[in-house]
Amino acid sequence: MTDAQREELLWLYRTEDPSPWNYAILALSFVALLSGFLILGLSSMAKKRKVTAQYKAASNAEKPLQMERMLEQEKQTHVPFSHTLPSKTAAPDSPKSGNITIQWKDGNVSTLFQDDREENV
Question: Using CA atoms, how far apart are residues 11 and 3, in angstroms rounded to an integer?
């Protein structure tokens, strides 16, 4: 092996102190993290401003109409207060307390637990 080949191999397989490179990557990753948080915060604030502006514009445009509609609906659906208390007896078709019924998507209604009583307590 000649001296030139040896110098070339030493240059090719050189080892140096990697701490400046490690510190540079650490600093760049910290800057990237901060800029990401900054962009996230700015976009969320812009979205919030946009949504609140839309709600304000919609509420200002519909406020008189909405109030009139609410008053009309209240007049139509107003039921005077009844002074009678509900009866203590339940309707015969109402489920018993503790009885859980499930209505399936196909329309069948079944109970979660069977009606069998515990025989030996």
Answer: 12
Q: In sequence order, which residues have a C-beta less than 8 Å from that of residue 111 and are 6 or more positions away?
A: 99, 100, 101, 102
Pairing mode, if any, of strands 109-111 and 101-103? antiparallel
Query: What was the pLDDT predicted at 28?
Result: 97
Distance, in Å, from the CA atom of 117 to the CA atom of 95, rounded to the nearest integer, reads 17
Q: What is the mean pLDDT of residues 62-85?
A: 66
pLDDT digits (tens, 9 = 90+) for 37-57: 999 999 999 999 988 887 787
Tell how far CA 74 is from the center of its chain. Answer: 34
DSSP at 117:
P
If we measure between CA atoms, which residue out of 71, 80, 75, 117 comes closest to residue 98?
117
Among 103, 98, 93, CA closest to 115: 98
Tokens of 10: 């030493």
Residue 2: left if φ>0, alpha if ψ -120 to 50, beta else—which one?
beta
